[in-house]
Design brief:
The complex is a heterodimer of chains A (251) and B (201). Chain A is an all-alpha fold. Chain A is built from ten helices and no strands. In chain A, 31% of the residues are buried. Chain B has a domain at 66-133. Chain B is 32% helix and 27% strand. Chain B is globular and about 50 Å long. Classes of the chains: A mainly alpha (251), B alpha/beta (201). Chain A binds chain B through residues 148-149, 151-152, 154-158, 162, 166-167, 170, and chain B through 49-51, 65-68, 70, 72, 74, 76, 78-79, 87-88, 128, 132.
Amino acid sequence: MRAKLRRPVVGIGVAAFWLCLWLLCSLWVGQELLLPTPILVAQTLWRLMGTTAFWVSVGLSLLRVLGGFAAAVVAGILLAMLTTRFRTVHALLSPVLHVIQAAPVASFIIMAYVWIQVGILPAFIAFLMVVPLVWSNVRQGILNTDPKLLEMASVFRLGRRRTMRYVRFPSVRPYLEAALTAGFGFAWKSGIAAEVICQPDWSIGQNMYAAKAYLETAEVIAWTVVVVLLSVLLERLLLRLFGRKKQEVRE
Amino acid sequence: MSLRMEHVSFAYGETAVCRDLSWQLPQAGVVCLWGPSGCGKTTLLRLLAGLEKPKQGRIFPADRKAAVVFQEDRLLPWLTALENVTLLGAKEETASRLLTVLGLTAEEQQALPTALSGGQQRRVALARALAADSEVLLLDEPFNGLDETTWREAIPLVAEYAATRPVVLVTHVRQQAEAVGAALISLTSVPLTGELCAENL
């Protein structure tokens, strides 16, 4: 019980420390344009939350990124299955997926800006960032499936569907979960970055860019807080969906 | 139709395990394969289970239904002991009865394999093979890790199966073969050749 109570108390203490430090720094700098106080940022966020534009922008940004993310998960799994099954497909696709993994996200945003409609570009970028991650993790999971269990399934004539359900999927599941949790962060950050560069209508990125252009530093930070909070919230939701809590790091 | 091997040859790379080997299994009863390590006992089981294909010769019937207890337990770690047994289509009460006879409590039957001892996992693997819908039971050192009292408790279950179908048992413990009333096949030379014949213990 004491340990249960200790964790949130420590969390609040840590947050209070950083907020105080931020407040002191902004008071010391003395210019809201350079570093607004956390109070001003909170006030700005509260004001933004009172507008319809805020909620529409947040909703549409979420929709774009989640759409790209979902498509990437499906494509990543299919590619993993294909590249594990067919060597030629692996030989062909593997370099492409590795290049996507290694190249900076800004390069893709700029290139895709030329080819793709601005409205769906963040979804495409989120898709592009997550596909290689899901592909490589799921492929690893498939390859690491215990051959002895597969042999057992074959001897006992478990059938393709039940082997998939009881042997293959549970073996791949931890790899997929790791890819989804890490991939969601990637998708969200790269999607917002794409929005900032391409500024589709009704998007968090467009609002951030406008705030920057008008030197509304408090608003830029307020939007950043929204992005971070949504990222944490959705990641927790994802973990809950997997039916497990984030592993606690014990000292 | 009883299970038989006809002029089977098999090799791992250059190492021949059997050459022109024939073997007619009985319609029912236990046959014990006996011999030193590396003499091809497990390979014979794998051939009968259909996990290895003969380089030459044939094994009949081609669509035989085998149940196997491997040297390792090969339990699905994400399913409970009971689910590991019912997975193959056995009714829950049949599976539970087998596990109970083999000494697993109701609580242990609901536990994941990782929460069970090595001996208990072995018993789950044995129950799974006994519960499976099969025409032949292939046991590769099935009582490894079990104390004498426990493996003796398992013997009637194997005997019950063997009353109607053939069982091939690989073991290094002669008392186990004797307890189950097995006919003995001594494997001495590699590669195995000719006709395998069983002698009564």
